Structure formats: C-alpha cells, structure tokens
Amino acid sequence: MTTPLVDSEGYPRADIDVAKIRIARARIIRLQNDYKKVMDKLKVAVEDAFASAETASETDTESIVPSSAAAAHGSVPSETTNGHSDADIPFAVVDEVSEGGPAAAAGLKVGDKVTAFGSVDWTKADKFKLIQAEVMKNPPNVAIVVKIMRMDKKEDVMITPKSDWGGRGSLGCHLKPL
C-alpha cells in the first residue's frame, strides 16, 4: 500500500503493473471505509440495545418495603412481577456456602442464581474479575447488594464482605459460571 509506483526519476516502474495496483489499492480503501461505517453502525446499535434493556429493567422494577424479618435476615424480594427482563439473566450459580461466613449470614444458599453482584451483571465482560474488584474496593462493614433468583423468585441479598470471619475468602461462598 505504501510502495511507490514510480521510480526515482518519476516514471512508472517497469517491474510492476501500475494499473492493477492502483485498482487494488482503490478497492482496499473502499473496503476499509465500508468496514469503518459498518463498525460505527454496529457500535451505535449495540449501545442502543443495551440502553433499551437497562431502561426496560428500570421501568419494570418496583421498590418494595422489606418486612422486618426479611430485612433482618439480609434478604429482600426485589420485584413483584413474574416477568423476567434482560437484566435478570443469571450468570453464576452459588455452588458452595461456608457455614458461619458472610454469605451464609446474609441468607445466600447453594443453588441461588446470581443476576447481579453490586454493579456487575451478565452484560459485563470478565464478570468474575469485576466481582473480585467490587469486593476489594468495598469499604469495611458496607454491604453489597447481590441480586439472585431462588426458585424463580427474585431477591436482593445484602452481603458484607469480611476478611476476618475465620474462613476462606471475604464472602464465604463460591460462584460457578453458568
């Protein structure tokens, strides 16, 4: 693409077919421009799709005043509708909960499907690295909202990470990707 088509004196080079090269270069440039336009349109379409999914989940969700028993246990129903929005897609399942750990104290159970962990949901790439970062940056004694599905019912569980609870990790549970 950058090789000169003329020699040092300014005449067309005799060792190459200049016309074919100019046609090929023009085609490559057209294809590159088309590619850029398609990628720009795709970027806008993806952003619009995720934005509409977020607004749909925000309008579908109703806030509920938690009962004192549920609030004391750390688990609160998060939605009254039976419909599932795109934000409710589980990306992990709890496959282990350590007795006496923060997850057990919050009411998390084996088999719970995680739909959001703080600000991390199924739309994020590297979800498990982001969950780890979310736990690490969380201030001490501040709960993280974990949205789960338990037997097709949505709940919010408030987990307060603790490094000194006597077990492995800060949460006392293990998440397995779905």
From TrEMBL:
Choose one Gene Ontology CC annotation of this protein and give it.
Answer: cytoplasm
- One family from Pfam that matches here is PDZ_6
Q: Name one GO biological process term.
A: proteasome regulatory particle assembly
Residues in PDZ domain copies: 80-152
Q: Where is the composition biased (Polar residues)?
A: 56-66
Q: Which family does it belong to?
A: Belongs to the proteasome subunit p27 family.
PANTHER family the record matches: 26S PROTEASOME NON-ATPASE REGULATORY SUBUNIT 9
Its recorded name reads Probable 26S proteasome regulatory subunit p27
